[in-house]
Amino acid sequence: MPPQPGRNGKKRRRVDLRQYGILGALAVIILLFQILTGGRLLYPGNVSNLFQQNAYVVILAIGMVMVIIAGHIDLSVGSVVATVGAIAALSMNSWGLPWWAAVTLSLVVGALIGAWQGFWVAFVGIPAFIVTLAGMLVFRGTALILLTGGTISGLPRPYTAISSGTLPSTGTPDLMTLGIGALACVALVVQQLKGRADLRRLDLPRERNGSFVFKIALAVIAIMYLCYLLAYSRGMPIIVVILAVLVLAYSFLLNRTVFGRHIYAMGGNLNAAMMSGVKTRWVNFLVFVNMGFLAGLAAVVSTARAGGAVASAGGGFELDAIAAVFIGGASVQGGVGTVVGAVIGALVMGVLNQGLSILSVDAAWQQVIKGLVLLAAVAFGFSRRKGAR
């Protein structure tokens, strides 16, 4: 059904109930655990830990949503994290590399692994499920071979600060953290207004004024409240800055570039994309190179968080990332999904983990609850798309 003009003759776009539904679910989950934990969920220290402990999920979900939009899946990211983490630790403790060189090496190795898998998917034509399943076994075994001693610890302080460190603080409250939050709000408002102006200029459907203003106001309040909590903790965590840069960069990549539009086109209708001149092989190849690059970054973050590398690292990371993407609104068939939605899905998973841990819920029941949340999110999205059809 085409968009209908409003009372003033302007084209209006229906509110994305799926997007608002996920945001509402996140708000309800936060409120529920805030009540059940007696207010402990949103203690400043717990909020900081929420981002530090779940940063790897956000990073992997950003890459995974691009893979899933293109119509693929990647089951190897957890094993890639283990292998790259082992290489990072060895490069500093055994090969004498400085921490920044180890980070660079990790990103390069992750991208090379992604290129290896992307080659088989894009140019040989083997389904991504099979290629990455093989990769899951290969790189898990590689991690075990590299870490024959089981563990490498004692990593340099600047390296571990990537995950656990904070920006220089000005005191309590930390004015730098509040300033960063204010700048983020200004950037958000400018970006949203610019996007709306572009839609108006092109005479495309636009969201109603009321819901548009409400959405921005809610986002600004959430950002400033988060920065307020962090300002009364240890300050702005470095990892939060890294995550914010990734969200902005990849949102721009998917929404504002030809490459991003090609990813959506391939996932929506591969044959139509090929007939339109999209170089599908190279797009698929670069999608997996990017996934490997972000897996390398997730390895750096998780290794820095743990303070060392272990062969069992990354276990279940691929499931967390895939769950976050589908909770965030991506379609199993491909062609649908957003970076922001994947991040919201990762936060839902993180809040569930944090809240259930504070309540001392058994780990087995935590898995059951997260599985039911994933099923409910996918079922809701399926019913919405079926109703639209």
From TrEMBL:
Membrane topology according to the record: Multi-pass membrane protein
| Cell location | Cell membrane
Segments passing through the bilayer: 20-43, 55-73, 80-101, 107-130, 137-155, 175-191, 212-231, 237-254, 282-301, 307-327, 334-352, 364-383
InterPro entries, per the entry: ABC_transp_permease (IPR001851)
Instruction: Please tell me where this protein is predominantly located.
Output: membrane
Any one GO CC term of the record: plasma membrane
Q: Which UniProt keywords apply?
A: Cell inner membrane, Cell membrane, Membrane, Sugar transport, Transmembrane, Transmembrane helix, Transport
Q: Which Pfam families match?
A: BPD_transp_2
Recall the GO molecular function terms of this protein's record.
transmembrane transporter activity
Q: What does this protein do?
A: Part of the binding-protein-dependent transport system for D-xylose. Probably responsible for the translocation of the substrate across the membrane.
Which protein are we looking at?
A: Xylose transport system permease protein XylH
